[in-house]
Amino acid sequence: MLRELDIRNFAIIDALTVSFAEGLTVLTGETGAGKSIIIDAVHLLAGGRGSQEFIRHGAKKAEIEGLFSLEDERHPVFRKLEEFGITKSDGDILLRRELNDKGKNVCRINGKLVTISILREVGASLIDIHGQHETQELMDEKQHLYLLDQYAGKNLTKSKESYSHTFDKYMKLKREFSSYTENEQQIAQRIDLLTFQLQEIEAAELVIGEEEELVQERKKLQNFNKIYESISAAHEAIQGESKGLDWIGSAMSELEHAAAVDETFTGSSETLTSAFYLIQDTGSEIKRILDDMEFDPSRLNEIEQRLAVIQSLKRKYGSSVEDILLYHEKQTDELDKLVNRDQRFQLDQEKLKEMTEDLRVEAEELTILRKKAAKSLGKAIMEQLKELHMAKASFEVNFDILPNARFDRNGHDAITFYISTNLGEPLKPLTKVASGGELSRMMLALKTIFSKHQGITSIIFDEVDTGVSGRVAQAIAEKIAAISVDSQVLCISHLPQVAAMADQHLFIEKKVDKQRTTTAVTELDGSERTEEMSRMLSGAEITDLTLQHAKELLSLAADRKLLMK
Description:
20 helices; 15 strands
C-alpha cells in the first residue's frame, strides 16, 4: 500500500505530505481544489510522462516522493528490484522523482538512481491508476484483445511465447522471400556490386592480427636510427675499453680477495660475480643484434602500401579486419542466394508454406485458449454488471479473423466486446452502444475482476463515478469498497455514496497565503466528515435535514462495510 506521499512545488501545491490508510481512501472537495493534481503526482511518481508545466511557478524543480509498504515478500515487485540491483528495505519501497525547469528527470528507487523506464516498470507493479479518460481503452477495439489476454493470464502466456517465437521466424523468412520479387535489373546490379566487393576483399588476402604486426614493424623502421644509436651506446658503455664491464670485473676481483680473508663478503662477492657474467652475456647479445641490424627502405614502403590497402577496406566494409571478414561472409551468402535464386525460391517457398502452417496451428491454439477464457470472462462480467444494476445486459466476446487471413504478433484473432444493455436488443459492439455511465460500470466490472489477478497494491480511481446517480451510485460505491478489501483504493469522487464507504476521508481545498494559491489536505472525522457529506448531498447550504441524511448515509455505509469483511 501507499503509506505516505510527499509533494513539493508541483502545480499549485507548495509543500504537501499526505499519509494514507489501508482500505478505501476517498478524496473530496470543490472542483479545481487540486484533487486530480494529487493523482497526477502519483502518476508521475509511477513513471508517467512529465512536463515542465507541472513545476510550480517560480520554482526550479518539482519533487515527489512516495513510500510503499508490502507485507507479501513474494510480491512480483521484489523480483524486479533484484533484477535491477536495487536493495530491498524490510518490505518498504521508496520511489522519488524530481523534474527540473530544464525538462530533466532524476528518478530514484530506495535511494538508487534509475531510468524512467525502470521507474515505470516498478511503478506498474505497485499502482494502477484509472480515470475518466481511460474508458477510452474500452472504446478502442484494439485493446479488447489485450484485456482478454490479461484475464487469461498464465494459461495463455506459454502458448503466446511459443507463437511469438514462431512469428519472428515467419516474418524473417517472409522478408527474405519477398526479395525474390525485386526487379531483375536491380538484382543484376546487386550481383555486380557484390562480386566486385568480394573480389576486392579476397584480393587483399587479409589475415587477422596482420595489421597490428605491420604497425609495430613500421614503428621500428621509422625509428631505426634512434634505436641503432641507443643500442650502440649501450654496447659501448658495457664492453668498451675501460667502461662498465671492465670496472665491474675489477670490483669482482677485489671482492673475491676480501672474501678469501673474511667470509662476511662471500655473499656480496657471489652476487657481483653473477651480475658480471649476466652483463657480459647481455653485451654479447647486444653485439649480435647490432651486427644483424640493417635498414631496408623498400620494406618500409611495402608496409605503408599494405596498411593503406587495409585502411581503404576498413573505410568501406568494417572498422577492423575481423569486421571486414564477417562482411565478406555475409555478402557471400547474399550473392549465393541471388545467383541461385531460382533454386532458393523453390526451397524458401516450401519453407514458407511449412512455416505458415506451423503459425496457423499455434494461432488456432491461442484462439482455443482465448475462447475458453472469453466464456469465463463473460460470466464474471455478467455477475459484476448484475451487482451494478445492469442485470438486463448481455455480454460476449466476439471472435473474428484478421483481414486477408493474415497473422500479427498476437495471432490471427480480431476480438471485439459485444454488449446489449436492454432486454430484447441484439448484441452490438461495445464501442457503439454504451453510454458514459454504462462504460464506467463496464470498466469497474473489469477492474473488479482484474484486481484479483494483478497483485497491484494500490488502485486509484479518478472520478470514475461521473454520470451516475441513485441506486447505481450506491452499487458503484459498494463495488469500489469491495475492491478495497483486498487492495488499497484511493478514489476521487463527488458522490456522497462513495464517500460514505471510505475508511479514510480526505478533504482537498484551496487556500491563499501571501497572494499565492496552494492546495491543502485535511483528514475528516466525526462532525467534520458529517458536514462534508451534508455539503455533497445538498450541493450548497448545509441544513439540519442534510446533516440528518448524512448521518443516516454514514450509518448505512458502516453496516454494509461490516457485511463485506
